[in-house]
Structures are given as C-alpha cells and as structure tokens.
Amino acid sequence: MTALNLINVTLNYPDGEGIMTALDSVNLAVQPGQFISLVGPSGSGKSSLLAVAATLIKPTSGLVMIDGVDTTALSEKELAALRRNKIGIIFQQPNLLASLTAAEQLIMTSHLRGGSLRAAGTRAAELLELVGLGGSSGKRPHQLSGGQRQRVNIARALMAQPKVLLVDEPTAALDHERSESIVRLLREVCDEFNVATVMVTHDTEFVPLTDAMASMRDGVLAAPVAALPSLGFR
C-alpha cells in the first residue's frame, strides 16, 4: 500500500483581490521505505506541499491519502489522531523544550498520545542510541550541538512509528560535515523503519543519498526522477 499519496492536489490562497495557487494539480506517491528529496526555488510551493501532506492544511481540491486513509474526509479530531500516530514531522528548527532532557523530549510525545511511560522510556533509549546519542540522553538542549539537537528532533519524530516522515530543510543551520551526517542518518532511518520519507532540501549535493528527486516551480510538481549516484555517496 502506498504510504503517502497526493492526487490532483490544488491549494489556493486569497491574494488581495485575486487568488494565488500554491499547489497546482500536484500528484505524488511515496512507497514505504522510499526516500524522496524535494527541491525548487523559494516560493515554489515546497513548504505548502509538506503542510498539506502533514494534514496541517486542507487542500482546496484533490485527495491526500495517508496509509490508505483519505484525510480530506476526516474531522479535525480525527486528523489530530492521524498525525500523532502515522506522521512524523521534522522541522527545520528542532524546537526542543529547554527544561527537558533529550530522553524527556521523546517521552513527552508518547505521553501526549496516552502511551505507557515505561514503554516510552524504553523506546526513547533505543531511538537515542540509534541516532548516536545513547550517551547524551540526560543532556538538555543547551548542552547539545546543533547537529545533536537535530538528531533528537529525528528520534522524537520516530516515537510513534510513523508511516510517513516529512522533513523540512534539516541541514539549513548546519555545516557541511554535520549536514551530510544528518542526511545519511535519515537514509538509515528510512531503510530501518521502512518509512516513506519526503525531504525538502536546498542541498542538492546530498540528493544522491535519496532514491528519487522531485522538483517544484510555481506550484507545479515534476514527476520524481531517480537520484543519480555520485562519488562518495550511497
């Protein structure tokens, strides 16, 4: 079953006396374990696509299918439950709570879903180990580097074992070495958890670490093409 499927999605915004089309009949299907990079100039519609795919914004027309569920037919309460259980979102800025340790950042997300604290603690420890922070679970955000905070952000998004992982410019605030390590980690996560992953990125250098690249311009999405291998990647 396709994990994420956008079918003829159009998103219009009021713009003065007219209408701006942020997404124009967009079609995108992402399979479990497939890693898609999404590129395009600023204002092309990439952020709008992520917001619609995350069910944070309802499209003007078209269908948004998550794990076979037509999200456009759901109530706000049902959408919130679907996001908690099936969608992991990794924002450009980790937005970690200053008072919580790395482990507590993850455990809190499980608590909000009503999960067992003991089970959440176990999973948080496993995920922090997976992202290379097994020895830093007790550290607070100010004690972590930018790359480490982004790793906590990734681990937190995986707590609910999502079907879809949506990633917005994860390397924007990182240097080259840390950027590459984060994209490689996302590649490992995609493979390890068989999660459909869409990553908006301006770092086309790291596209070869993904399975395919889709490009946007003026709200129009070109069909994904296979990411060509590059020396030093994959």
The shape is globular
CATH architectural name of the domain at 4-95 and 164-226:
3-Layer(aba) Sandwich
Q: Determine the CATH topology of the domain at 4-95 and 164-226.
A: Rossmann fold
pLDDT average, as an integer? 92
Question: How would you describe what is shown here?
Answer:
There is one protein chain. With 234 residues, the protein is an alpha/beta fold. It has a domain at 4-95 and 164-226: P-loop containing nucleotide triphosphate hydrolases (Rossmann fold), CATH 3.40.50. Helices cover 32% and strands 26% of the residues. It is built from six helices and eleven strands. The strands form two sheets. Strands 3, 6, 7, 8, 9, 10 and 11 form a seven-stranded mixed beta sheet that branches. A four-stranded antiparallel beta sheet has the order 2-1-4-5. A hairpin with a 2-residue loop joins strand 9 (212-217) and strand 10 (220-221). Helix 3 packs parallel to helix 5 (146-157) and helix 5 runs parallel beside helix 6. The longest helix is centred in the last third of the chain and has 18 residues, at 176-193. The radius of gyration is 18 Å and the shape is globular. The model has no long low-confidence stretch (mean pLDDT 92).
Tell me briefly what this model is:
It is built from six helices and eleven strands. With 234 residues, the chain is an alpha/beta fold. The radius of gyration is 18 Å and the shape is globular.
